[in-house]
Each structure stands twice: as structure tokens, then as C-alpha cells.
Amino acid sequence: MNLESPKVTVQKPAEYIYNALIDVRNFEKLMPENIAKFEITGEESFIFALKGMPEIKLKLKDRNPVDKVVLGAASDKIPFTLTGDITTTGDNSCDVQLFFTGEFNAMMAMMVKGPITKFIETLANNMHKL
User: Fold this and answer.
1) pLDDT digits (tens, 9 = 90+) for 56-69
2) What is the CATH number of the domain that holds 48?
């Protein structure tokens, strides 16, 4: 299953957004209002849970200065990645778009598509909070 957020323009340099995204503590600022839990579990990992959803542990998997940050599931039970693509659009602005890629069976994909789509849209729309 492949999902993508809308592309958002942030009035900050790409390097600033990149550095903010590789610091996993900053993801708390991006979370939706219905967050039930956010806990840092290491320098490159955190656990979060939205109300009514199971806990998810994310870990920084890859990075490409200053245009890509890849987070992935810390568990192999439900393999997925969340990739942030950052594109410089000016001296003090950049575009950010999030891509979710996961391997789910058809039933699971049907159940999680809506919530995950809304979740990555919220993360993208909150980029200005960094």
C-alpha cells in the first residue's frame, strides 16, 4: 500500500526541516490532537499511539542530507516506512511531502488506509510547527 500526503510549503530552509526531522523528539509537535501517547525510546526511535489505535514504534532508518528522512516500523510484524521528501524552493522555503509504504493484506489495508491517510496529511500540515 502506497499513500502520499499533499505537498506543503514551509517557510524555513530545507536544511532546517531536515535537521528537525532527524531529531525524533520533534515528531511530537507534528502529531494530531488526538494523540494518546508519545514517548522517546532512544536517540532515533519513539512510540506513539492515537486514541483508539495500537501503539506504533518508529525508528529512523535512513537519511539523505538535506532532502530525505526515512522512518520505519521498529518491528517486522507490520513492515512499513514513512519517508519525508524535502525540496528547496527558495532561500528560506521548501516543500515537504510524506510517503507511506506498507505491506498489508487486503483486509488490513482496507481498515488502515483512511486513518493512515489522515495521519500523514496531519503530519505534513503541521510541518510549519517545527
Assistant:
1) 999 999 999 999 99
2) 3.30.530.20
